[in-house]
Amino acid sequence: MDQKKQETELKKQLVGKIIKKNREAAGMTQPQLAEISSIDYKYLGKLEKGIYNPSYLKMFEILNGLKINHDEFKKEVEQEFKKHGLSLHGNL
């Protein structure tokens, strides 16, 4: 696997980890968040595992379900990426 693809995979995993952390902090199960966000809970599970890369619309729905501001989430993602030597800009 080339460097760019490895970075993309790591970014998906990190975003999924952050979604899961925020969902658990909100005291929600995957089915609860999925219902509020109008997405399938199996899809949410795969997002949290870093298997899928959410579209902007899906991400917006999830953040609304979690009652998280987009800018706050972006900061959280940027901080996590920085820990791993990644940038939010580029491929994701």
Automatic annotation (TrEMBL):
Annotated ranges, domain HTH cro/C1-type: 19-73
Cross-referenced SUPFAM superfamilies: lambda repressor-like DNA-binding domains (SSF47413)
GO molecular function: DNA binding
Source taxon at top rank: Bacteria
Gene3D superfamilies: lambda repressor-like DNA-binding domains
Record-linked Pfam families: HTH_3 (PF01381)
Name of the protein in question: Helix-turn-helix domain-containing protein
